[in-house]
Amino acid sequence: MALDWGIVAEMALVLMAWSLLYRENFFFKIAEALVIGWFMSMSLVVGLDILKGRVYVPLVVEGKWLSPTLIVTILGLFYLARLHKDTRWLARWPISLMAGVASAVAVKGVVYAQIIRLVTMKSWAAGGMTAFNNIVILVFTVTGLSYFIFTREHKGALGAVSSFGLYALMITFGWVAGTYLMSLISMSVGHMRTLMQVPGIYVSAVGVIVLVIGIIYDQKKAKTIV
Amino acid sequence: MSVKEWFARRENQDRTIFVLYFILIAYPMLSPMGLPIPIGEPTIESYELLENVPEGGVIVIVSDEGFPSWAELGPGEIAVYRHAFKKVREDDCKIVLLTSYVVDGQILTERCLSNVDLTGLEYGKHWVQLGYIPGYEAVLSAMMDDLKGIAPIDQFGTPTKDIPMLEDINSIDDYDYLYACTFTAMDVYIRQWGEKALARGVPIIINMLSGTVPLAMPYYRAGTMTSYLNSVTAGSGYEKLIGRPGMGAALMDAQSTAHLLGIAVILFAQGAFMIKLLSKPKEVAA
To answer: Is A114 on the interface with B (CB under 8 A)?
Structure first.
């Protein structure tokens, strides 16, 4: 069976990246630079492809000069005006336009999806765990919000409620951090599967040998210094 | 240097944990333990919603995952692709594939398709790949009203107006199932699709990293997001539901052993801290 060099390269890069867990080293720096370089080149290729299909063909090949594409293309070219100090100000136009559009698009859906629906409970009369969850949501929301009331000193009832709110926030952040850690575990587990199969296992074997050599080298170096 | 001195150094403690971690996740790959795979309710819901897409229905798949997240999101993504293409074969459904966030999604779409049996299916008639459409949130918003407007050509340069399948597909009125796979914030999809999709009864399913699930729960409970897939856990469950155990099932054992190590390390650290704390007054007294 022919060796899949794509997987060999992928797994070698994974091990080179993981080598940072031992200490910063030459292999990690190579992997870091390769990944950034690859991503930039890939983006450039896809970007040029998009420019060809959506700008060059309609404007130049099909001759549709009078279209919104022309305005967008000119605004896009304004980004490059940053390269010269006399024309740098032109780049503010597409940036401000993009910021404005992005904010407008985001705000458009916020009211319904992120405000109205979230504060509308499906049913208060639910039983079992749903009722318990509803109570937890209500208590955590009210107490959590009370923690951020700064117009009154946190004393008496407000003090007690906001203290509880602080614990509610800590529980929530703990949960988020825990599940994020779980995410990272899943990622490494996925790569480990490929590392334990042919041809990844050959790369793993080479990786272990390099690591052992590295450890021995470090130990000898430490003794020499002592 | 004695073992105690060696272990007292913090970097060596970290290295010991990493070595144990790698041994524990590598072991189940070499010798599978066959631990039971739990299938969560949202996973079953997601499966049933896709299964219930009517005959001739349109399935929209937005692949916004990146390479770093592939190991986690890949199993679920491939399982959904397989299920969607099964719907194409059995119920003459149509699939629209696109990417709005980063170019990685376009490449990973190809990877997913390489895991699907496409024999007998025809590009442009059964499925269409619109490729990477830059704009992210603006694209997600615009695709609800004018899909061909934001994608005048497909991934291969063919004008979308010339693609037979897209003749009657252009807005949310034509979609029957909205699915997104994301390795960033899921609320963007809810924001842009929520109101219009829910008004027309079109389900929204999001495959996301387990780290973002807590942030998605309010939307799920409120019904703004119809259902979700919780990364590799849901991926392995979904594989089981479609009867094609694959990458996800193999990863679950390793994930369980990794979690066991996590619990052991927490207990060990807390235990050591408590012992130190309780023994302190004695030292002071002495």
So the answer is: yes
